[in-house]
Every structure is written in structure tokens, then in C-alpha cells.
Amino acid sequence: MRSFFNLLLVSLFFFGCSEAKREKPKPIADLLMPQNALEYLPSTKVAPFSKHKLLELKENYLKKFFSPFLNLAPNPNISEVFWIKSSLEKNIGYGENLKPIDPKMTQKILQDMQLPLYPSVAQMAIVVKDSDVRAVPSVHPRFSKSSGFPFDRWQNSMIFYGTPVLITHFDKSKRFAHIQTEFVYGWVDVRHLAFVSPKQAKNLAAMKDFVVPKSDELIITDWRGDYLTQARIGKIFPLAQKNKIWVFKRQSDGKLRIEQTQIDPQAFDAFPLNFSQKKVAEYINELVGRQYGWGGMYEERDCSAFIRDIFTNFGLYLPRNSYAQGHYGTRQIDLSLLASNQKEQILFSNATPFGSVLYLKGHIMLYLGKDQKGRAVAAHSAWSVNAGDIWGKEEYRLGGVVITTLEPANEYNGSWGRSKTLRDRILLVNDLYSLMEDIGEGR
């Protein structure tokens, strides 16, 4: 009998120490929907823009794109530029080991920012490597909670190769430069920037012909065949000749070198394209299945980067975050006081399929119209949604660019204590197609 109990105790010990079986992630019904955006194209197409409107859109975009080379001055509002300062002093957060960050580390970061000296320079530069724009001069992450991955609160955005910037400051080590554009502030590795002379800036800002890639996977090399960058959707490239573009390199002295390199003209479109729902659908299809990248981390896209990169091709220069995109322009309809099902009816009557965005706190989606069941459908880059009941809530992973209804994972909601769906949380719809019309007409 004693040997039996000993065997039982040993078995229980090993059972208790063994790794628990992980439950299979529950499938989300919406992810079984067609992920081909062309299947949701409306029967009625929007009118194309006139040549005059296209030219207005192009000039408006390029004026903002090249503003660091034209009239952009360092923002003197330190609390706006360095909004992260208060969290460095109070809300420390968690690091890459998912343990609380040492306050000494955040104090050192704050000291290294040398805020009393800001702005210390006004140097024009251009990005020569797709780069993270950080809220602090550090590559280390900061999560709000120990389970906060992938939401690194020190990550602002990714900035594309070829983007003009204004350097306004350096950290103590001079490893990081603080840059400013029309869409983002933050710290970038100095090695990813090339200093631009006034003459170079004038010549670049005067360029009129640009192209945009049709694919997210095109590789750009220099004339020697050495890798330069990946031509991603949302990037624009200055055209030198029919089959050549201007490319940018950082020399050993940090200054900009401009060269030409050959491209396949069939892989690019002239910038800007005339807006069409079919072309938007083709861009969505190019991006569906891409992984989620908070703030552009891992060279992927979050919700607002997905929207921004698509509309760049049509000459619309959008802000970087979801709130600013939702409130950009004057073409919003407030849905915040409506019942959930009423929101869909407003969308069906007023929103432009493939041309309107749906904003809710912390997220933004591209409205596509109806599916065959008459449900509103959207394309978006999302990490997860919650669903549950009075017994508890669960997180259901979307994990990237997907096409869903406005209620993904709603099948896991109970009757009591249910989680709010995306549709429940929508606050407004913003018609970006109509906004482009306004810009094209000079309004």
C-alpha cells in the first residue's frame, strides 16, 4: 500500500510540474469571409476626378511632404513635441522582460533628451532607411502592463525611405536625432538620415514627377545591384526618366548623395492615381494577410498606417494616428449617440464604399459596403477583439490586415455581460473621397 501511495505522489508531482496544454485558439467566423476585396465592390462607382482636381491633390500632397525643405520650423511647444515626458516621470511601465522598468533608466533617458536645449538645430535631412520613429531616444520598449505586447508606448511610427525631415535636436550621445515632419515627431537613429544642403533641398522640392509601387514586395537596388530599400505601398519615388528613379544614400560624412537607378515601369503607377474603388480594392488585396505592426514595428502596419498608406497613392496626405484621421477635414458624420444597428443604416445611406473610414477610440477601419448577407464590411489592420459574458471575457486574435463585418467574434458574446463590438464602439464616419473632392476644388 505504501508503494502505491508513493507512486501516486510521484505521479501527481510530475503532473503538476508538466506544462499545461494550451487550448487551441477559437476560430473567428468573420475570418472565413471572402478576403478578396474585389468581391465587395459596389455596383455604383464614384466619379473620377478631373485633371485639375488631380493636380490640386498632387500639389497639396507634395507641399506637405516637402515642408521640411520649404517652410517648416521647429515646434517651440515642448509639451506637445515631447508629450512622453510626464510618463517618464510617473507611469514607468514594463520593459522587454515584462518586468517593471527601473526608474533610473527612465530618468537617464529623460536626461539624455537634453530638453532645456531644445531646439538645438534646424538641419534638413532625408531618410535613407525605413526607420522607427521613437518617442524616446532608445530602442527599448515600454508596455503599459506586463501583458501589453505588442503595444510599445515608446513607438511612434515607422518612417519611409525617401521622406524629407527636419532635424531639430540631438540626444546626449548623438546616436539619435529628433525629427519633425507634417505627420510625426520623434527620435530616429542618425545613421538612417542623410543631411541635405539648401541647394539639394531646393532641387528635390522642385521635382514634379513621382511614381508609386503597385506591390508591397518590390526591391530597389542601386546601379551596382546593392540593396537600397523595399518599395512598399504608401511610398512615393521621384521619377528621373521613364525607367529610372532618384535614390538617396548617406555618405561617410553624413551628407546626402543622390543617384539614379533603374526600375521596371510596369511595376509602378504615376502619382497620384485617380481615385477608384477597384484600385483601392487591389491595394487592400496586396495587404490582406500582412502581420499587425503597432506603430509600424517590424516594418508592418497598424490600423492608421494601413489607411494612410492606401490613400497616399491617390494624393491624400493623412495624419498618422486614428483619432487625427477620423477628424481630418470636415466630412464627418457623428454616430456616437446612435444605437448600434442604426449606425449601419447611416453608413449604407451616406458613406462611400472604399472611400470612407470608420473611427472608434483607438482604432480606424476602411468601410467597404455590404456583403451578400447585407452586413456592413470593413478592411482594417487589427490586433484583436474581445468577446464574452458575465463569466468572463476573452481576447480573439485578428493579428493583421483582415476583412470583417463590424462585429468580429460576436458569436462568442453572451446575452448578459457581453463585450461591445466594433460596431457598438464606432463614433463617426469620415468620407475621405469627399474630402479629396474638397481639396481638388481648392476648398
TrEMBL record:
Q: Which GO terms describe its molecular function?
A: cysteine-type peptidase activity
Domain NlpC/P60: from-to ranges = 274-403
Keyword Magnesium, does the record have it?
A: no
Q: Which UniProt keywords apply?
A: Hydrolase, Protease, Thiol protease
Gene3D superfamilies, per the entry = endopeptidase domain like (from Nostoc punctiforme)
**Pfam families documented for this protein:** N_NLPC_P60, NLPC_P60, SH3_6, SH3_7
GO BP term (any one): proteolysis
Q: Does the keyword Ribonucleoprotein apply?
A: no
Reading the lineage from the top rank, the first entry is Bacteria
Which residues lie in coiled coils? none
Family of this protein? Belongs to the peptidase C40 family.
Write the protein's name: NlpC/P60 domain-containing protein
Give the organism, scientific name.
Helicobacter cholecystus
The organism's lineage? Bacteria, Pseudomonadati, Campylobacterota, Epsilonproteobacteria, Campylobacterales
